[in-house]
């Protein structure tokens, strides 16, 4: 299997020839299924399932299944899958990425492999870039699936558990990647097996896969509880930040979005709080608070990274331009921004569970995806997910003309050219879609167009309530629309014949994005399915993109720049320079994703162990619960003996290994312990362990008499899970602190990842000890309380 996948990654042309033969087979079956009644088509589901039960594979039935879906789509939607859509379906079916141009009908393509894989009965997940697309695609394709006897669910935020459970129980479930990921985390926090909503990770089709698996992969998914610590502190540090000056109190590296305090800045903080050294371990919380406040003050921009809506900070996804519903910045940054903006400071988030986007999607047995812009990230898809990219031919030739970029030296010259170009194109009635990279830019450009009396619509996160209405108008004659990336992925701008005769939709990009893939998505709004169209980027060397590039290199380039009278850069080779900048920044982002993944890998492996522990406890009958308890208690007692009676002589480490301390700790897990200190002074380890185990056997006999108590068994299950969760949260917090400083280790000629792996393992061993001892101690505390209550009642 792996060799064939490698072959597909390296040379997809050979595999396309193979797939063309499969398409021919599907076409040859068309007349057969055209003769079927609706009932007979629906009945194919049971026939296919019977064939699978008899030992046939999905490969054996794929052509017939595709032919059945095509026939259903013709009858229900009046749409017949083109041959290129069948090719896309086969590519997805094999666990690959179908690179399909925008407008090629990817939504219809997904019906083919989703029906086929749903026949296995394990559920298929169709994952979209946002909830609007999930709802839309489900509503459009639901009739096709239902005609063929398949149930279709929708999984979005704000649904209760029973609704989610029903959505996941469906044969095919639509939803967003973040919501699927959060449900996975929540399922690993439940206290009853029946409370889980997901039922495994069998087959997934990810629409706009580069957006979800690459762009969003720089931010891990985090479920957090609330902690009120630090709320007042953020209000104070926000005020101090207002007095800070760049290069005096702090330094900022825009390209990596890092800020650092100077000695002068640290001195100001120390003076304000009356402390000697901000970097002392005892001031760790204050330092963390100050650094987050500095980041909020210097790096995070209103109407770029977030907006204020109804007195609350709402995050903006810079790749889609949309509000990220239910999401907040982690580790106090959200509260620091609230303090900066003077809105109510909410409770800080405390991480309870986390997973990277990469590690969540690697849970699927078969992962596939579609997008119009995968090729620039072909290498990363393979290295991170082992996903090959296969380019699918277009159904009709692409008529859109993509003009070379016009690059101006400054913003003023660029803006002047944009306005004149909009006027020129709009004067003949052609609709214009102007792409911007932030809300701030869309509003600034709107002001310039208003000055020239150019009527236009604005689509950004602030106007998303009117999105559907704005999109409908975008392709109409004489229309001008300014939009953030919201008008990129998944947006169908329909043109009437008159507009097509005028030349179609005109795309005008006002900035290059940090990734060429997003530029491709903007261009792809025009020239869909053989429509005419144009795209033109008009940018400047003062755009945000260039501020992320190396400052010295940028200054060097600017010093050589020659322009015409209007400020258009003529030399040296502006297009090559822009491409170099964009590639460098994209490489930086890829490195950041790799860095995150390498640091998260130990945590991912540890989380699997913890989640399997939880699942084991959730699955156990009451009697088995007590067996696990006794297993933990025995480990705890043996470890206590090992600590107080080490096999090798230990250096002075400050640990009290006196017999008195040993008896005190050991007594915690026994009902009674009649040991004398003098008996232990010169005792051998084996002797002490043997005696402790003898005591444990008596305790074990007593505990086994309690396993008939169903109520106590349920109580035991609950606090076992509570102990695991409580210590796991503390562990996540410790690892987070270690990660913050781990990059510094690289300067000492040491591999920071190896250091982190080692520290993470040590912390995990400590975590397992804490869980086992916590369960043992808390259970015995409960038993002793019960016994005391019984004695009081008997008296």
Give me a quick take on this structure.
The protein is of the alpha/beta class and 795 residues long. Helix content is 54%, strand content 12%. The longest helix is centred in the last third of the chain and has 46 residues, at 574-619.
Spell out the CATH superfamily of the largest domain.
Answer: P-loop containing nucleotide triphosphate hydrolases
- The CATH class of the largest domain is Alpha Beta
Structurally, how many domains make up the residues? 4
Per DSSP, the total helix count is 30
GO molecular function: ATP binding; protein-exporting ATPase activity
Domain SecA family profile: 1-570
Binding site for ATP: 85, 103-107, 492
Catalytic activity: ATP + H2O + cellular proteinSide 1 = ADP + phosphate + cellular proteinSide 2
């Amino acid at each position: 299997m792996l060799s064939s996948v490698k072959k597909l990654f390296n040379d997809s042309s050979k595999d396309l020839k193979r797939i063309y033969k499969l398409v021919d087979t599907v076409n040859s079956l068309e007349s057969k299924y055209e003769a079927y009644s609706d009932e007979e088509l629906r009945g194919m589901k049971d026939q296919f399932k019977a064939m699978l039960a008899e030992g046939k594979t999905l490969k054996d039935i794929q052509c017939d299944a595709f032919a059945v879906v095509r026939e259903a789509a013709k009858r229900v939607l009046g749409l017949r899958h083109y041959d290129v859509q069948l090719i896309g379906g086969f590519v997805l079916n094999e666990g690959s990425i179908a690179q399909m141009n925008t407008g090629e009908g990817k939504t219809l393509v997904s019906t083919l492999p989703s029906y086929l894989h749903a026949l296995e009965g394990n559920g298929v997940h169709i994952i979209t870039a946002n909830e609007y697309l999930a709802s839309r695609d489900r509503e459009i394709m639901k009739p096709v699936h239902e005609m063929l006897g398949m149930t279709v669910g929708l999984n979005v935020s704000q649904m209760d558990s029973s609704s989610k459970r029903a959505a996941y129980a469906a044969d095919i479930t639509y939803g967003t990647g973040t919501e699927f990921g959060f449900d996975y985390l929540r399922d690993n926090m439940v206290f009853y097996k029946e409370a889980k909503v997901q039922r495994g990770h069998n087959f997934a089709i990810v629409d706009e896969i580069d957006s979800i698996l690459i762009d969003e992969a720089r931010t891990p998914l985090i479920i957090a509880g609330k902690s009120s610590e630090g709320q007042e502190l953020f209000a104070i540090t926000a005020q101090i930040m207002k007095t800070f000056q760049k290069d005096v109190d702090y330094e900022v590296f825009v390209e990596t979005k890092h800020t650092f305090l100077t000695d002068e800045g640290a001195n100001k903080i120390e003076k304000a709080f009356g402390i000697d050294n901000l970097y002392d371990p005892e001031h760790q919380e204050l330092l963390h608070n100050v650094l987050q406040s500095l980041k909020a003050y210097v790096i995070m921009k209103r109407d770029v990274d977030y907006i204020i809506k109804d007195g609350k900070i709402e995050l903006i996804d810079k790749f889609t331009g949309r509000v990220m519903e239910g999401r907040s910045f982690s580790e106090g940054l959200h509260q620091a921004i609230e303090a900066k903006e003077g809105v109510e400071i909410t409770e800080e988030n405390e991480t309870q569970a986390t997973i990277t986007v990469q590690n969540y999607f690697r849970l699927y047995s078969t992962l596939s995806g579609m997008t119009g812009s995968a090729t620039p990230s072909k290498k990363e898809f393979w290295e991170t997910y082992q996903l090959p990219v296969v380019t699918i031919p277009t159904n009709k030739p692409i008529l859109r003309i993509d003009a070379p970029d016009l690059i101006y030296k400054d913003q003023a010259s660029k803006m002047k050219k944009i306005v004149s170009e909009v006027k020129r194109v709009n004067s003949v009635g052609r609709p214009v879609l102007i792409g911007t990279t932030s809300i701030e830019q869309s509003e600034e450009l709107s002001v310039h167009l208003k000055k020239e009396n150019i009527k236009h619509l604005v689509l950004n996160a602030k106007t998303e309530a009117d999105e559907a209405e704005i999109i409908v108008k975008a392709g109409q004659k004489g229309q001008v629309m300014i939009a953030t990336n919201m008008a990129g992925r998944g947006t169908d701008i329909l043109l009437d014949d008159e507009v097509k005769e005028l030349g179609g939709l005109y795309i005008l990009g006002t900035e290059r994005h940090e990734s060429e893939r997003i530029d491709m998505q903007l261009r792809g709004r025009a020239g869909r399915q053989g429509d005419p169209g144009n795209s033109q980027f008009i940018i400047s060397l003062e755009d945000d993109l260039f501020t992320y590039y190396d400052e010295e290199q940028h200054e060097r380039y600017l010093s050589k720049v020659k322009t015409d009278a209007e400020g258009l850069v003529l030399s040296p080779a502006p297009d090559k320079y822009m491409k170099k900048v964009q590639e460098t920044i994209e490489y930086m982002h890829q490195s950041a994703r790799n860095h995150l993944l390498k640091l998260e890998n130990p945590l991912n492996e540890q989380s699997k162990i913890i989640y399997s522990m939880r699942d084991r406890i959730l699955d156990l009958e009451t009697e088995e619960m007590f067996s696990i308890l006794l297993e933990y208690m025995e480990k705890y007692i043996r470890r206590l003996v090992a600590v107080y009676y080490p096999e090798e002589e230990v250096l002075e480490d400050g640990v009290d290994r006196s017999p008195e301390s040993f008896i005190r700790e050991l007594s915690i897990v026994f009902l009674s312990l009649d040991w004398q200190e003098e008996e232990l002074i010169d005792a051998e380890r084996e002797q002490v362990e043997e005696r402790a185990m003898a005591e444990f056997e008596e305790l074990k006999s007593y505990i086994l008499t309690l396993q008939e108590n169903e109520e106590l068994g349920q109580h035991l299950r609950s606090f076992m899970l509570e102990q695991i969760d409580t210590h796991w949260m503390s562990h996540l917090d410790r690892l987070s602190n270690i990660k913050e400083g781990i990059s510094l280790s690289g300067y000492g000629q040491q591999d920071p990842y190896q250091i982190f792996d080692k520290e993470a393992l040590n912390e995990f061993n400590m975590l397992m000890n804490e869980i086992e001892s916590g369960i043992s101690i808390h259970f015995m505390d409960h038993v002793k309380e019960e016994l005391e209550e019984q004695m009081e009642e008997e008296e």
